[in-house]
Amino acid sequence: MKPHVNIVVLVDAVGALSDRTLNNGNLSLVDDGAFGSRGQGTTDLCTVVVPGQVVQWTAIAIDVQTTAEISAITFLPPDAAGGAGGAAAEEAPAGEAPGGGHENLDLKVWEGIVPAHLQPGVPYRYRLEVRMHEGRDSVLHIDTPALMCA
Amino acid sequence: MPSKAKPPESRPVTITAVIDPVAALASGALEGNLFLYDTNKAEGSAGFGGTDLRTRVRSGDRIIWNVVVLECETYAALDEIVIDEKVCTPERKVYPNTDIAYWTATVKRHVTEPVPYRLKFRLGTVTEPYAVSSPALVGQAGAGKEQR
Amino acid sequence: MAQQQGIIVLVDIANALRSRTLTGNVYLFDNMKFLGSTGQGTPDLVTICPGTYWSDGSQATEQVLNWLPASLGSIPPTVPRSYHADRAQATDQEALEEIAGVADRAGDPSVDTAAELEGLRRRVGARARRQRGGRAPAAPKVLDVTGNVVTGEGQAYNHPNPVITDITGPAVEEKIMYPAQYGSPDMVSDGWYWAASVDTSRPGTYRYTMHIQLHELVWRNGEPAWEPVDYTCDSAIKVISDPKRNAFTGAGLGVLPIP
């Protein structure tokens, strides 16, 4: 068993900001899991994991001069059908952020251990929130990806 | 003795819009992400670096508007210029054999009061234009001493 | 951060050449205002370099700066730099085609062949000589700011883009940044650009100096020549550095918060 699973979040920031959605091909998810993850290259990636593995998410902007960073990953309650029921992602108040008042999301390492209590075969969906630059329309999210125990 | 370069008589007045298209898309506004400049500082243009540029012009001057993009891989273009047709009629043209546009107009009359105009930009793949109405053409007199 | 930082150096070339200085004729920009760069669009840009390090103190992500000079009132940088050569070739080609027409009509006494040839000569345009050691484009035709050829003295011409020839100063001497000129297949930068990687382990504000060459069109005996003129202009980087931390726990590695 590989101790690590990497999930890469590939973002077309200009496309996403223009369309105001991470769908339409503006985001795709890929992992290197060993247990037959489904939906590679889409927004519906279901990453198959085992308890004790470390999962790490990394955002990459397809255009080297633009920025796309993960601003929140929030696991949704099991019965949240539409995805809106999850706890809203909270952003650190800008004043408390390191980096002279400007929150530098590059400091955040999105990494955690798969807990032991997950039911095998049940997808645990999460809200993935991406921030591109700053301002009113800079944060977009999808509720479709999931982790699932083998 | 070689003749030194002299500034040519007929040099057009170029107004350059520097734009950060990604920041404008993310914030939903041009303010703070659009920086206007012109080549007529020596004649008394003012308001450089903001959206309220005051370009000093004379009757007969040729004006060119163009765009410099902070992220060269992101599309940003000037879509329309709305100004009093009695003062000038901007026309969209392209650099020969390219699809890159600039706008040009000739000042038709002596400008006394400032003539504000509207700049509309297209950013990324958004179909709705982003606009500012704060820049203006100003004449030789009554343009104020707001030089900076 | 994987993002590369671009620093745009916008020069009012005509005014700089007239006042013989870059002071007051340069406007600087970068795309890092959202991380704390200040002075966008002014001569006083301070570019933020937000460094990160791991818990063992090693640098986590590399900061890369790229400098892109641009000219106020010239053909904008989005027009490919091969444009000058392309336009020179295109206008020559048009003229060659018309020479054939002039030759065909030469036998007709009502046609003033000399006047036609003179007209052609004017349309082919002026070709500027290049100063030895200068970095002006190799033997291009002189174009005006809308991409048409200039045919004689006194016409408004397009200044070649400013050229960065060196980057020096405290930020370089103190080994905070390591600038160098790189080759690139990207036509926007004419195949060459200056870039630097930054050592973010020593936070502070460090000044640096850009050496910028402009080109002035000088007419000698009716022949135009590009003459290089060298100026400098200062800017600064502000290096900060913060530790990487786990986004779920705010500290070290933990179990994922799955309900």
UniProtKB/TrEMBL annotation, chain A:
Record organism: Actinomadura violacea
Superkingdom of this protein's organism: Bacteria
Protein name, per record: Inclusion body protein
From TrEMBL, chain B:
Protein name per UniProt: Uncharacterized protein
Organism per entry: Actinomadura violacea
TrEMBL record, chain C:
Record protein name field: Uncharacterized protein
